Amino acid sequence: ARLTFSNSLLREEHLSDRKCNELCRLFAEAGGPANGVIVHSDLLLHYLEKRYPGLYFVSSTTKVLTEFQQLRQELERDDFSYVVPDFRLNRSFAQLQALPQTLKDKTEFLCNEGCWSGCMERRACYEAVSRKNLGEGGTEHVCTAPNAGEGYRFSKAMENPGFIGVADIQRTYLPRGFENFKIEGRELGSALVLEFLLYYLTKPECQLKVREEIYLDNMLDLF
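-> structure tokens emitted (223 positions)
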């Protein structure tokens, strides 16, 4: 399992947060396969490395590393077991193919990003979320992407140039030596999360059967 601690605006005083430290302790001492933490802040990374050496660390896509050389430098850092590239690098196949296998093993692609591929304000958007999560003021970020008012739609994400579908994974990424993929959207609601799990993790011929079992068993509250 992983904790997501990807706030980009952390300060020294935030490192003593009692609940977050207790979560890290539980994850670090759980036994069995190692648990991880997704991080943005190097301040937090170095704190966790010293205090909870049983954890592994994932470099967050919120760093918005849109240049391939930036991605490669991040992959070469010994601090990280995995690095999630900006989704706009998902199809930089010539450069990705040139990576040594050790770095391919650390690359974890974000498959179903819903943001506009031409967005130039992604970093500012993440920083606005970070300020809000810290309970601080500041200007609310207003997304100016086309059709931003529609919110996240899986059908729209599938039209994104960086979208990675099941066939892409099987025919393009796995043969090139990439095996790690990330699905976003844990806060989008149960119906959408179900669609992600059906699409990526359920055989097509079984998807309707799984839907029926969930609907008829009242496990999914659509309303």
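Residues 28 and 54 are 5 Å apart (CA to CA).
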